[in-house]
Amino acid sequence: MAGVFVLPGLAYGLAGPAALVSFGVAGVLALAGLLSQAELATAMPKAGGTYFYVTRSMGSATGTVYGLITWLSLVLKTAYELVFMAIFVNVLADVPIKGLAVLLCGFFLLINLRGVTLAGRLQVYLVFGILVILGFFCGCSWEALDAANFKPFAPYGSDGILAGAALVFIGFGGLLKVASVAEEIKQPGKLIPLGMILSFMVVMMLYAAVVFVAVAVLGGKLAGSEVPVCEAGMVFLGNGGRIGFALAGILAVLCSANAGIMAASRYPLALARDEMLPGWLGRVHKKFQTPHWSIMMTGLVIVAVIFVKVELLVKAASSVLILTYIFTCLAVLILRESRVQNYRPAFRCPLYPWVQLAGLIGLVALLFEIGMEAALICCGLALVGFLTYWFYGRRRARQEYALLHLIERITAKELTTHRLEAELKEIIHQRDDILKDRFDHLIEKCPVLDIAGTISREEFFRQAAEVLAVDLKMKSKHIYNLLVEREEESTTVLTDELAIPHIIIKGEHHFDILMARCKEGIVFSEEAPKINTVFVLIGTKDERPFHLTSLAAIVQIAQEEGFEEKWRAAKGIEALRDLVLLGKRRRQA
Predict the structure, then answer these.
(1) Helix, strand, coil percentages for the chain (3-state, nearest 5)
(2) Which one of 325, 359, 392 terminates a domain?
(3) Cα distance between residue 161 and residue 239, in whole Å
(4) Which of 39, 90, 479, 494 is 20 to 30 A from residue 65's alpha carbon, by CA?
(5) Which domain holds residue 131?
C-alpha cells in the first residue's frame, strides 16, 4: 500500500508515461506467484509462509536459506518503510525521523505481541482510511488532467518498461504477507485465496488510477519525485492537498510496517519449529498465542537497520521478493508432479502448469533487471542462510520433502518414508477442524491387505479370515465360512470396483474392519471379475447401528471424485489408510 505513494515517480524515471505498463507487467507476473501461493497456503496453512512450502517441497537446506533471506528481506523492507516516512513527515514538520521510526517500531511490536486479531483490526482501519483518501485524490484531479503528458508514451522502449517493472515489483510484496500468518486465520481454505485475490484486484486498480493521475497531472515533473501524490495533490488542491496526502502517505507506511512486522516474525518461528534455529524462537505466549520471542528479535533487527543506509538493501529486498514468487511457482510444480497423496489444497491454481511456467520465465527476466549490486547482496544473504543450516540445522534436519517423491517416481526407487504424508494429514485435520470419531480410530489401527496379482473370492476370504482371527480370537475357518455364506445369500458387491462383505458374530460390543486392495482384481463373480477395493465389516448384533454408520461412511468416501484412481495409485498400506481417513464424509458427534 505504501508503494503507491512512492513508486510512481521512480518508475516514471525509467519508463516515462509507460510506467503504467510497468505496473501492469509487474502485476501480471505477481498474479502467477499469488495464485500459486494461494494454493500452497490452503494446502499447508502454517506459520512461515513460503519457508514452510519450500522446505516441504525442496528440503531443509533450501528451506533454511530461503527462510532466512526472506525474513531479512521483510525486515529490511519494514525498516525502509519506517525510515521513508521521513519524506512525508518533512512535508509537515522537521522532526527527528529515525527516533520517531524507532518509537513506531516499538508501538507495532506491542500491537503484534497481543495477537493477529488486534493487529489485523488496526490494519483494516488504516487500509480503509487510505482507500478513501486515494479515492478522493483521483476524484478531485479531473480538471487538472492533461493528455499531452502521455506523449511520447514509451521514450525508453521495452527495456525501460521492464526496468520499471523490476523496480516496482516490491509494491506487490504485501500480497503474500497473509500466507505467513495463515496458521492464525480461521477457515484458511476459504479466506486466504479470497483475501489474496481481492487484495490483488484492489491493488491493481489503485496503482492504475494513481499512476494515471500522477502522469496526467505532473508529466515530466514526475520523474524522480519522492512524493508524487503530494506534488500532484498540490497542483489541483493547493498546499492543503499536499499536506493531506502527506498524512495519507504516513498512514500507508505505518500500515505496511505493521503488516511487515506481523509477517516477518513468523519466519523465525517456523525455522525454530523445524529445529533450524534455536527452540526459544518457536515459543508461543501462553495468553496471547503469539510468537513473542520471534517478534521481539525481528523488532530488534529492524531497529538496528533503521540506523543504516538501506538503499542497496531495499534493492536486495526486491530481488528476494522476486525469488519468493519464483520458489512459490516451483513448489507448486514439485508438489503436484511428485503426486504426494495428502497434498490436498482447498484452492487449486487454474491453468496449471502454464501459469507457473509463464511466471517462472517472466520473473527470471525481471530478476536480471535488478542489477549486480542487489544480486551480490542477495548472494551474501543466501550464504548466511547456508552457513546457518550447515553449522546449526544440518544435524537436526529430519524433514522429508516432495522433491524426493518426484525423484522416486522418476527412478522407481524407494527414497521416502511416510513422514511427509503424515505431516500433511495432520495439517488437513487442523485446517478443516476434523474431529476424529470412532470410525477414524478403527481405520487408524485396522488391518490392511495389499494383494498382488488376481485372486478368487474364496482365496481372499481365506486371507482375510486369517488376519481377523488374531484380533477376534476365533478360528479362521469359522470366519471364512461366515463370509462365504453371507456372499452366497446375496452379493456384497456395490460397484464394478467396490465390495463390502459384512458378517455378524456372537458376543457383545465388538466391531472390526479390514481393508484390502488388489490392483489386478478379486474375482467375486462373473459379473464382478475385477474388484479392487474391499472393506470387510465384522461385528456383534448390538453394534448394528455402528455397522450402518460405517457402511455409510465407506460409501461416502468411495463416491468422492477420483477415489478409485487414487486407491490404485496409493503407495503402500499407510497411503491407503490416509485415503480413507481424509475422505470427505459426515462425521458422528
Answers:
(1) 70, 5, 25
(2) 392
(3) 32
(4) 39
(5) 3-392
